[in-house]
Write a structure and sequence with these properties.
Layout lengths: L5 H15 L2 E8 L3 H12 L4 E5 L23 H14 L3 E4 L2 E6 L5 E5 L2 E10 L3 E3 L15 E2 L2 H4 L7 E5 L3 H12 L4 E5 L9 H8 L4 E4 L4 E6 L3 E6 L4 E3 L2 E4 L3 E3 L2 H5 L4 E2 L2 E2 L12 E3 L15 H25 L1
Helix pairs in contact: 2-3, 2-8, 5-6
Bound molecules: flavin-adenine dinucleotide.
Flavin-adenine dinucleotide binds next to helix 2, strand 2, helix 5 and helix 8.
Amino acid sequence: MLILGPTEDLEEEQEENAQARPNEKDLGIIGLGPAGLTAALYASRSGVSVVQVGLDYGGQMGLAMEIENYPGYEMISGIELADKMKAQAEKFGTKIVFGEVSTIDILENGRFHIKSDMGDFVVKALILATGGRHRELGVPGEKEFVGRGMSYCATCDAAFFKNKTVIVAGSGDAAATGTLALSDVGAKRIYWISRSDYLKCEKIYIERAKNRDNITILYNKQITEIKGTNTIEEVVFNDGNSLKVDGVFAEIGSIPNVELAQALGVELEEGLIKIDDECRTNVTGIFAAGDVTSKINNPLMRQITTSTGLGTVAALSAIEYLQGLKIKG
Ligand SMILES: Cc1cc2nc3c(=O)[nH]c(=O)nc-3n(C[C@H](O)[C@H](O)[C@H](O)COP(=O)(O)OP(=O)(O)OC[C@H]3O[C@@H](n4cnc5c(N)ncnc54)[C@H](O)[C@@H]3O)c2cc1C
């Protein structure tokens, strides 16, 4: 066994620590959607050191093919807008990491240890901007045909359905823009179905859909089963009727990504992260922004502009909190 003298001992310990010590930053932001990217811009521009970890680049915004309601751009794709937001945050020093955060631990000194598949980070404050993920129909056949006609993103997969017959289930903006995207790529027929007797999306989309020859809107229809052999061939509805189709797009909203928050002891309200007017959660040093928060519990208001707004508020609150920590020493 090698016996080390005091200096060698210390050097080895320091080396081990350096290897084990994760990156340290002032602020950790989870999420690469518009809320997180805006928070990163504000925080890094104010001189706070920021690490931002996210799995899907641009978040849900990255799935939007054409955005017409983000001020300053008549039309821009979600990915292009995300590129611009990312570049702006990076310009001020934000370190962006593409990875999944598995856990976040609160350390004894009140700091947060973020563990991700792309490395660990220790931060003094945290902004959770984890948004949402697609909701499933929960009907027989759905899981079986994922990637074989079953999709959750019409704007992403529309191009594969040229000259095909498809169903878009859902009545919100994502369903509307998905239906129009399928019409644009030349799907033979798109049945846009709503489970109630109305559509929840913006009126402008309904007018556009009604003017397209290849779109049929059906109300009070709910899918109860998806059938096929190798790919989807037929869909059965709650009224017993069925339709021969090649694809099904479920655009029925999102499930908030609150698992990390819950594990940290962050309080929820109606399944969303509960925040006050300054985007503070019940846990000291943890802030939240965007679609995942209780401030936007009306699905219609889950928008890029509302998310960027909350990203701003969360960053300003986090900056204030970090300044308070400095004063306390
Ligand atoms: C198809 C589609 C079209 C849309 N079109 C428009 C439009 O035209 N105009 C408009 O205003 N809005 C539109 N929206 C809504 C808009 O995109 C959302 O409101 C907005 O993206 C929400 O932003 P967010 O930052 O709160 O969350 P999200 O965009 O959902 O981002 C969440 C981020 O958190 C990350 N994340 C979550 N959990 C983890 C984890 N454990 N580890 C690492 N990362 C994690 C995700 O990877 C993602 O990067 C559209 C949405 C969809 C789905």
